[in-house]
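Problem: given the chain below (153 residues), write out its structure.
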Amino acid sequence: MPSPGGVLEIAVKRRMLWIGSAALPLHNLTRVEAIKIKPERNVLRFLLGMALVAVVYSVTDWVPVLILLIVLAGYFIKMMVAPEKPVLVVETAGGSRVLVTLPSVDELRTIAGRVVHAIDHPEAEFTAYVHQLNNYNGPVFNQNGGQNTGIRL
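Solution.
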């Protein structure tokens, strides 16, 4: 369970993987992997913004165009310099996916190794506490799949 101090508990207890308040049966896991996700670098969105600037330029004065160009340049720079994000991906046979982000991919690999060990050894149990990483993409925990729309901590 997440605590008020911004700490998330990841645990394996009695053949269940607990990530915060989400419980996943170990025998139902199909993928556990620590990877780095590349941020979306959507050049098409930038080009659509440039088209909007051209339309505004054809209709109005140069001041709104200048403002739009500054906003568009800021968006493009932010998009290009966004770093990769380390995530622990846990997928189930039912199509659900849980992502946990931490600053270090090594910590995530350690947790992934402990989860895989617990899958092969049903008697194994462990608990890890991770600090939530709140940034522009939201909280540390995200769950998708099936009827889930996501969990915001």
